[in-house]
Write a structure and sequence with these properties.
This protein is mainly α. Helix content is 52%, strand content 0%. Helix 4 packs antiparallel against helix 6. The longest helix is centred in the middle third of the chain and has 13 residues.
């Protein structure tokens, strides 16, 4: 293997990975719970459930609201000042929640 490629790979492997903190995400979710529910299950049919969603989807959605690519007056205000770490933590919290589905036709 080329020495330059080996050096790049060694550097990438040695870089610390910022882990998301679902406990912090749970704390941050207090503001979200007004609309999305305490455990990410919304009561309002016009508000999406967040529990069990993929972290990637939640991160992208929040960032889209921050950038103005998605529009909602409440969401835009709530997420405006979230850092990237806050967003990752929120996403980690909501994606860690498990949902179960029951088929009403199954017996």
């Amino acid at each position: 293997m080329n020495k330059a490629i080996s050096l790049i790979l060694a550097t990438l492997i040695a870089l610390p990975v910022a882990a998301s903190d679902p406990k912090n995400g749970k704390k941050l979710s207090r503001k979200c719970s007004v609309c999305h529910g305490q455990l990410g299950v919304a009561r309002d049919p016009e508000v999406p459930h967040l529990a069990g969603q993929s972290a990637r989807y939640i991160e992208k959605s929040i960032m889209d609201f921050q950038k103005g690519e998605r529009q909602d007056r409440r969401m835009s205000l709530i997420v405006k000042n979230l850092s990237k770490e806050d967003i990752k933590d929120l996403a980690a919290w909501y994606s860690s929640l498990e949902l179960s589905v029951v088929d009403p036709n199954a017996n």
